[in-house]
Amino acid sequence: MVNVEQVLKDHQIRPTAIRLLMYRFLTESEVALTLNDIESGFDQSERTTLYRTIKTFEKKGLVHQIDDGTGVAKYALDRPVAGKQAEQDLHLHFHCTSCNETLCLTDHKIPHISLPKGFVTEDMNLVIKGVCEKCSGQ
Amino acid sequence: MVNVEQVLKDHQIRPTAIRLLMYRFLTESEVALTLNDIESGFDQSERTTLYRTIKTFEKKGLVHQIDDGTGVAKYALDRPVAGKQAEQDLHLHFHCTSCNETLCLTDHKIPHISLPKGFVTEDMNLVIKGVCEKCSGQ
DNA sequence: AAATAAATGCAATTTAAGTGCATTATTGTC
DNA sequence: GACAATAATGCACTTAAATTGCATTTATTT
């Protein structure tokens, strides 16, 4: 069991009630969540507060935003890979066109790609669209 | 010089004035364009018409939409690769965080990635963020 | 406990995307 | 070429997500 309060503090995030709740909520989700998803997970909550909370998490490196092509931003926890750090945001994402869910394939790294002269890579974003194992029934 | 009218017809698109103009406009652009970019390129034009035109082009396989993470859709012509077809939309895109431009790196294909059992790939989308050769000055 | 700084709640704005419908233009048929 | 049928266009409007302003509340520092 992780000490959520400590995790937030470690990232210079003040552990307020809502932040603790949201962090736990994100922890429990297998898939990336939209702001709407998050909003639905809370009884009484201001959309704006949730928005700013997730943005704070993002800025502080707790979550990453995923653009899966649906036009709505989704967010998922940065789940540290055992032994590694920092390059963890170079994993790829899978978007299921059937159930509309998007998930991190944390141990599928994006292969290195060499670009033409002059191009400097800062970040990479790979989204694979298709049918997930739940929906393909395989 | 390509016969634009014929290109449209080949894709079952009626060659109206606006469509011919927009196709030429897209041809002349090195980078992917937002709807706003396109709108700015025309003197008198209805946003809606341009919107529906680009969507028609997309449906008929003349252009592809690019989601570069800025939250605004961009569009670029499907420029057929000599000798190949169909798999041409598996090239990758580069988004420059300096000039905000996005371009197709047509001859950089997305490498094959093997997914866990049950996952079926239908489409892939790779966007590399960084600094382009114009902005890096290299 | 007071002063300071940050987080929250609510209202409102911005912006892109998309729809409905009447009008206009284009195409196919006679 | 005229006419009917079909599609494209223009304009107004709606939807939905993202984002900001500001007053209020809560937490932190001294």
UniProtKB/TrEMBL annotation, chains A, B:
<feature type="binding site">
    <location>
        <position position="99"/>
    </location>
    <ligand>
        <name>Zn(2+)</name>
    </ligand>
</feature>
<keyword id="KW-0805">Transcription regulation</keyword>
<keyword id="KW-0678">Repressor</keyword>
<feature type="binding site">
    <location>
        <position position="135"/>
    </location>
    <ligand>
        <name>Zn(2+)</name>
    </ligand>
</feature>
<dbReference type="GO" id="GO:0045892">
    <property type="term" value="P:negative regulation of DNA-templated transcription"/>
</dbReference>
<keyword id="KW-0479">Metal-binding</keyword>
<dbReference type="InterPro" id="IPR043135">
    <property type="entry name" value="Fur_C"/>
</dbReference>
<dbReference type="GO" id="GO:0008270">
    <property type="term" value="F:zinc ion binding"/>
</dbReference>
<dbReference type="Pfam" id="PF01475">
    <property type="entry name" value="FUR"/>
</dbReference>
<keyword id="KW-0238">DNA-binding</keyword>
<dbReference type="InterPro" id="IPR002481">
    <property type="entry name" value="FUR"/>
</dbReference>
<keyword id="KW-0804">Transcription</keyword>
<dbReference type="GO" id="GO:0000976">
    <property type="term" value="F:transcription cis-regulatory region binding"/>
</dbReference>
<feature type="binding site">
    <location>
        <position position="132"/>
    </location>
    <ligand>
        <name>Zn(2+)</name>
    </ligand>
</feature>
<comment type="similarity">
    <text>Belongs to the Fur family.</text>
</comment>
<dbReference type="InterPro" id="IPR036390">
    <property type="entry name" value="WH_DNA-bd_sf"/>
</dbReference>
<keyword id="KW-0862">Zinc</keyword>
<dbReference type="GO" id="GO:1900376">
    <property type="term" value="P:regulation of secondary metabolite biosynthetic process"/>
</dbReference>
<feature type="binding site">
    <location>
        <position position="96"/>
    </location>
    <ligand>
        <name>Zn(2+)</name>
    </ligand>
</feature>
<protein>
    <submittedName>
        <fullName>Transcriptional repressor</fullName>
    </submittedName>
</protein>
<dbReference type="InterPro" id="IPR036388">
    <property type="entry name" value="WH-like_DNA-bd_sf"/>
</dbReference>
<dbReference type="GO" id="GO:0003700">
    <property type="term" value="F:DNA-binding transcription factor activity"/>
</dbReference>
